[in-house]
C-alpha cells in the first residue's frame, strides 16, 4: 500500500470513531436530560406546582415596553 | 509578510463577525420596536400558555389569527385545534373549553417541537413572533385576557451531525 493510502485510512478511521463516539455520547446525554426532566415533572405534579399564576396578558405587554 | 497576511485575515473575519452580529441585533431591536416580538424569559418554549379570553366565537378568533402576519404555515380550525409549522419548530393552539353563552374560551398554546442551535433556539425570533401574534390575537378580542403558564413534558434528542 502506498503511504497516502494509510493517510486516508487513518482519517477515515478517525471520522468513523468520531461518529460512533458522538452518537453514543448524544444518546447518553439525551437519556440523562430526559430522565432528570421527567423526575422534575413528577415532583411538580405531586406538589401541584406545575402551573404558574394567572396574570393579565395586557400587563405583560405593558411590562415589556 | 506572511504574518501580516494572517493578522489581516483574522482582522477581516473578526470585523465581519462583529458586523453580522450588530446587524442581527439591529433587526431584533427593530422587530421589538414594531411590536412583532417582546422580551421573553430564557427557554420560553418549554412552557405552554393557557389563555382565558372572551373571544365571542371560534370564527372571531380565526379571523384575528388570519389577520396576523404569521412567520409559519397555519392549518386547522379554532373550534378544535390549529397547528403551526415552520422549518425549525412546530406549535399548536387548541381549545380546552368554550362557554357559548358568555363567549369565554380557554385555549392552550404549546410548542410541540423545536430545534436548538449552539446558542439557543434555532429560530428564536420566529418562535417569539408566533407567540406574540397569538397573544395579540387574544388581546384584540379581549383586552382582559388572562394567561397562565405550565411546564411542558418534552424530550430532547441530539443529532450527531
List keywords for this structure.
heterodimer, A: 65 residues, mainly alpha, 80% helix, B: 161 residues, alpha+beta, TATA-Binding Protein, 2 domains, 6-stranded antiparallel beta sheet, two-stranded antiparallel sheet, 3 helices, 37% helix, elongated
Characterization of this structure:
- The complex is a heterodimer of chains A (65) and B (161).
- Chain A is mainly α and 65 residues long.
- In chain A, 80% of the residues lie in helices and 3% in strands.
- The radius of gyration of chain A is 25 Å and the shape is elongated.
- Chain A has one domain.
- Chain B is of the alpha+beta class.
- Chain B folds into 2 domains: 34 residues; 111 residues, TATA-Binding Protein, CATH 3.30.310.
- Helix content of chain B is 37%, strand content 31%.
- Chain B contains 3 helices and 8 strands.
- In chain B, the strands form 2 sheets. Chain B has a 6-stranded antiparallel β-sheet with strand order 2-3-4-5-1-8, with helices on one face. A two-stranded antiparallel sheet of chain B has the order 6-7.
- In chain B, helix 2 packs across helix 3.
- The two termini of chain B are 38 Å apart.
- Chains A and B meet through helix 1, strand 1 and helix 2 of A and strand 1, helix 3 and strand 8 of B.
Concise structural overview:
Chain A is mainly alpha-helical and 65 residues long. Helix content of chain A is 80%, strand content 3%.
User: How many discrete structural domains of chain B?
Assistant: 2
Give the spatial strand order of the biggest sheet of chain B.
Answer: 2-3-4-5-1-8
The tally of beta strands of chain A, per DSSP, is 1
User: Mean pLDDT across all residues of chain A, rounded?
Assistant: 84
Largest sheet of chain B: 6 strands, antiparallel
Radius of gyration based on Cα positions of chain A: 25 Å
Q: How much is the radius of gyration of chain B in Å?
A: 20 Å
Shape field of chain B: elongated
Distance between the termini of chain A: 69 Å
The CATH class name of the largest domain in chain B reads Alpha Beta
Taken in chain order, the helices and strands of chain A follow as HEH
Report the total helices of chain B: 3
Averaging pLDDT over every residue of chain B, what do you get? 90
Count of runs of 4 or more consecutive helical residues of chain A: 2
What's the quaternary structure here? heterodimer
Helix content of chain B: 25-40%
Annotated CATH architecture of the largest domain in chain B: 2-Layer Sandwich
Enumerate the spans of chain A where pLDDT stays under 50 for 5 or more consecutive residues: none
Amino acid at each position: 500500500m502506498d503511504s497516502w493510502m494509510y493517510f486516508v485510512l487513518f482519517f477515515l478511521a478517525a471520522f468513523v470513531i468520531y461518529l460512533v463516539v458522538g452518537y453514543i455520547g448524544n444518546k447518553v446525554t439525551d437519556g440523562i436530560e430526559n430522565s432528570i426532566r421527567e423526575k422534575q415533572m413528577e415532583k411538580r405534579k405531586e406538589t401541584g406546582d406545575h402551573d404558574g399564576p394567572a396574570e393579565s396578558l395586557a400587563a405583560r405587554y405593558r411590562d415589556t415596553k | 509578510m506572511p504574518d501580516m497576511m494572517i493578522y489581516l485575515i483574522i482582522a477581516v473575519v473578526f470585523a465581519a463577525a462583529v458586523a453580522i452580529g450588530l446587524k442581527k441585533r439591529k433587526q431584533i431591536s427593530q422587530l421589538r420596536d414594531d411590536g412583532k416580538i417582546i422580551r421573553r424569559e430564557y427557554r420560553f418554549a418549554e412552557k405552554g400558555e393557557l389563555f382565558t379570553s372572551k373571544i365571542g366565537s371560534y370564527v372571531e378568533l380565526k379571523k384575528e389569527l388570519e389577520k396576523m402576519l404569521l412567520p409559519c404555515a397555519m392549518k386547522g380550525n379554532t373550534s378544535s385545534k390549529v397547528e403551526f409549522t415552520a422549518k425549525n419548530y412546530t406549535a399548536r393552539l387548541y381549545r380546552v373549553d368554550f362557554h357559548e353563552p358568555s363567549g369565554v374560551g380557554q385555549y392552550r398554546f404549546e410548542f410541540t417541537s423545536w430545534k436548538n442551535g449552539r446558542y439557543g433556539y434555532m429560530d428564536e425570533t420566529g418562535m417569539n413572533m408566533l407567540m406574540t401574534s397569538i397573544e395579540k390575537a387574544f388581546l384584540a378580542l379581549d383586552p382582559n385576557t388572562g394567561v397562565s403558564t405550565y411546564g411542558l413534558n418534552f424530550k430532547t434528542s441530539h443529532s450527531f451531525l
